[in-house]
Amino acid sequence: MELEGDLWFALLQIFRMGGHTRQILIGTSDFGRMIGISQQTASRRLLELAERGFVTRELTPDGQLVMITEKGIGAIREVYDTLRMGLEGVDNVKFLNGNVFSGFGEGAYYVTKNGYREQFSEKLGFAPFPGTLNLRLRSAADIRARAELEALPGITIKGFTNSERTYGDVKCFLAKVNDAVDGAVLMIHRTHYGKEVLEIIAPDNLRKRLGLRDGDMVQLKVYLSRDHVQ
Amino acid sequence: MELEGDLWFALLQIFRMGGHTRQILIGTSDFGRMIGISQQTASRRLLELAERGFVTRELTPDGQLVMITEKGIGAIREVYDTLRMGLEGVDNVKFLNGNVFSGFGEGAYYVTKNGYREQFSEKLGFAPFPGTLNLRLRSAADIRARAELEALPGITIKGFTNSERTYGDVKCFLAKVNDAVDGAVLMIHRTHYGKEVLEIIAPDNLRKRLGLRDGDMVQLKVYLSRDHVQ
DNA sequence: ATTACTATTCTACGAGTAT
DNA sequence: TATACTCGTAGAATAGTAA
Known about the structure:
Number of helices of chain A: 8
Oligomer: homodimer
Number of domains of chain A: 2
Distance between the termini of chain A: 19 Å
CATH class of the largest domain in chain A: Mainly Beta
């Protein structure tokens, strides 16, 4: 989150007053009363929001004209998008949480095969980074949710045969990692991992992109069908 | 707001992990890392959310099973509704802010006339409290916005004639006061107030319901048409 | 009237640690 | 391992004012 709680709520209050559509005139006393803080703190909040570029400010003799900037609207929309998907797309989404661990890279092996790579780009919309992020599921509910994914069609990446051997089908689901990065869950049919493991692919190296280390918890939003993916 | 900033963001994090759909297993260390606070503070946050009824909690040897309650979802939905109306209904809404003052109660006089009362109930969906809340608009933008309301059709309450005199038409707009209470803006056609005054009616006494005193600022969301009113 | 500085109070964070 | 207590302290909030 770019904006800590109290500051975000100050921004929300400006938003409620229509500050995203036009300049609004507010006094720090009124503003403070509206969100339950003192005049002085209200002053500091508005100052800080302006300093950090979330609002523009213009002092007048009887208050200040405040308006939310593009950046401010972005901060609001970020929360909005999270809430919308969670509240309205429930039927199409499964939430999973797991902890990062270092695996044997079997997924990485698959992901680099040319016979798969082109299909990934075409069917998932991105060329996967040549490596997977391994997650270990820890709660019964997560493991159950993973089992339910097995039963769903998902997005199928077709197997193929080359001179050496035959490669089986791979099933994927589009997913959002930590509510921030788009990627996909890889369900390799014959894997030696158990039912408590999930492999994630993404356009980037997720460990670097999200600053993940072994043991860190990661949240996944798995899209069961393509509808409503955002 | 029922929930102060930091606590709300803790709830949001649980939401992001799917805690509104099922119990999720989280450790206080992981949870803290995810929102940038210490293990101890994370523990306190979860404890307080549970104490205040926003989540249920169940301790296990390796973490706690947390799930958002109805009340918690309500707190999230409250913000969601605000954001949705602000971001998606912009064309249908005008935001106005004004300060409460004690007026001469002309609106109250109108609002109690039987010839109007029935129409209010029928066309606005509520029987108005016999009194109005007077707001004084302070910024040029607010006064301009009020003038724009004059030009719109709104909801017309027809005038009538009784043995004493003739009563003119009254125009209304549905509105939300302080993002919390449903009411309506009353545009009495011939009033001795100037262009910087607005009268609000609602099912309840707004001063009591919202704890308003003279001079307090009030925010209004005026719905220009009935579509998308929430 | 305002906003916002300085001084002071006090809340709330995290370190250390018990369970 | 967990969670969550106590406690010292940093930083935030308010009081008092200046501008």
